[in-house]
Description:
68% of the residues lie in helices and 0% in strands.
Amino acid sequence: xxxxxxxxxxxxxxxxxxxxxxxxxxxxxxxxxxxxxxxxxxxxxxxxxxxxxxxxxxxxxxxxxxxxxxxxxxxxxxxxxxxxxxxxxxxxxxxxxxxxxxxxxxxxxxxxxxxxxxxxxxxxxxxxxxxxxxxxxxxxxxxxxxxxxxxxxxxxxxxxxxxxxxxxxxxxxxxxxxxxxxxxxxxxxxxxxxxxxxxxxxxxxxxxxxxxxxxxxxxxxxxxxxxxxxxxxxxxxxxxxxxxxxxxxxxxxxxxxxxxxxxxxxxxxxxxxxxxxxxxxxxxxxxxxxxxxxxxxxxxxxxxxxxxxxxxxxxxxxxxxxxxxxxxxxxxxxxxxxxxxxxxxxxxxxx
Length: 351
């Protein structure tokens, strides 16, 4: 891609997502009590995040780093082909296995109240996909809990896997209808993995593979490129949106979480650490939207969320959907090869 073309697309992507971003609760609500969030939402924003000069410098530096990395993209791709591609061919069906197991864990634990937000006792309050979408006082609470249980068990078994992927995409829209804009922070990060599940199927140790009864296989096979690229775009938009709406516009929430977890700052002021984290999330998300440096970006985000989970004492199951999706991107890369993965792809015959 020509340098000028990429630059304009990159700027247009960031600008569009900045316009979409609005203030609301993000996954910070999982680790802070409602009273803490309310207090922090009206607390003064650090001067660093109000300075156009420093924000402009940070944006320029981030853009320059991205362009430098893109200049090396050809060399990075060759390195990926030597190091990751042979490994991915041998373990192609492991990525969908990890993805469906991660998603199944989230769905089942959420239905049983096993992923509660901060301040809520375990196994007392069922939630919808994520900790702060509590099914309390919701008219459809029983139905939502039951559907989560059914889809979670099917994913665990690898049965009707692609149908379950479609259900996850539906969940992302249903959450908006039930919980309103508050669910907007999470929907894309379930819709994207849902598309990956549709594209890849159940993978290793799935009943779909064992019984050669993969419903929706042929449709997914024909649409695999669209599904794979769409998943990258949705997940990337999700990261950019979270970075802008809940870190750039509400840095007090992020700083409070980092301070509670006593995150090492390496001598830097906490607002600077928060700004760096914000920039990394936005830039990585934008590169996913553009479909560039997919494997390095997936590896960077995996490292970041793992580091934060360790520092904050947060269970990795909070982000099992992203772990599975990013692992798939790390193994597969930008394009979904033909054939890819498990037996069901090799058995498909398209007229």
